[in-house]
From TrEMBL:
Keywords: Membrane, Transmembrane, Transmembrane helix. This is DUF2269 domain-containing protein. The keyword Transmembrane helix applies. It comes from Micromonospora eburnea. The chain crosses the membrane at residues 12-33, 53-75, 87-106, 126-146. It comes from the Bacteria.
Length: 170
């Protein structure tokens, strides 16, 4: 059962789309900076810029996307534990949130402080994680539109009265 009015639900969905697709955009910018760094662009420009991007945009967006995604599940008829596509998105986003806050953000900040003293391994730290996360975000966008795999549990039977019309959309 939805706890939101149709207007409230549209507003929440809009917020969900703006935050999650901004997360994808920020991730692509991070990847572009990583590629620039690997190709020899000025490390004292590229990596501090990546540090700022992660600290002020990517990490805060990770928290916001997780919260708004959770609200989109709990406050709509989709629920968190009813449909496989919702639960899989929640699991992936939760894992990504942990990795961004505990691993990616500290790593990028460390690299930003190294100046020009960087190994190829350091430079790859700004290529591999954004490649993986961008792929996961695209996968989640596809899951959201196709909504595959059906329900986790069968729907509870609903008492129908003669003349009731079947619901075709959620
Ligand atoms: C905590 C993680 C997430 C949860 C629990 C979640 C859950 C949901 C739910 C329940 C809806 C349907 C909302 C409605 O019909 O009003 C939805 C829509 C959508 N979500 Fe997420 N989401 C999460 C993260 C993401 C991420 C990371 C992306 C993309 C990068 C994303 C992309 C979308 C898109 C494109 C839709 C619109 C689908 C449509 O209207 O057909 N979501 N999400």
């Amino acid at each position: 059962m939805s706890r939101l009015s149709p207007t409230g639900r549209k507003a929440l969905l809009t917020l969900h789309l703006v935050t999650s697709l901004s997360w994808l955009g920020a991730d692509l910018v991070l990847l572009a900076l990583g590629v620039a760094g690997l190709r020899g662009a000025d490390a004292e420009v590229v990596y501090p810029a990546a540090g700022l991007l992660v600290t002020w945009l990517f990490a805060p967006l990770s928290v916001l996307v997780w919260l708004v995604g959770l609200a989109s599940a709990l406050l709509t008829p989709w629920g968190l534990l009813r449909w496989r596509w919702v639960l899989v998105k929640f699991a992936i986003t939760t894992a990504m949130l942990g990795l961004v806050l505990l691993l990616l953000a500290p790593t990028v900040r460390r690299i930003a402080e190294l100046g020009t003293d960087l190994t190829t391994r350091d430079r790859l730290d700004l290529i591999i994680p954004p490649t993986v996360s961008t792929t996961l975000l695209i996968v989640m966008t596809v899951l959201s539109t196709y909504k595959p795999w059906g329900r986790l549990r069968p729907a509870a039977p609903v008492a129908r009265r003669p003349g009731d019309r079947a619901r075709s959309r959620m």
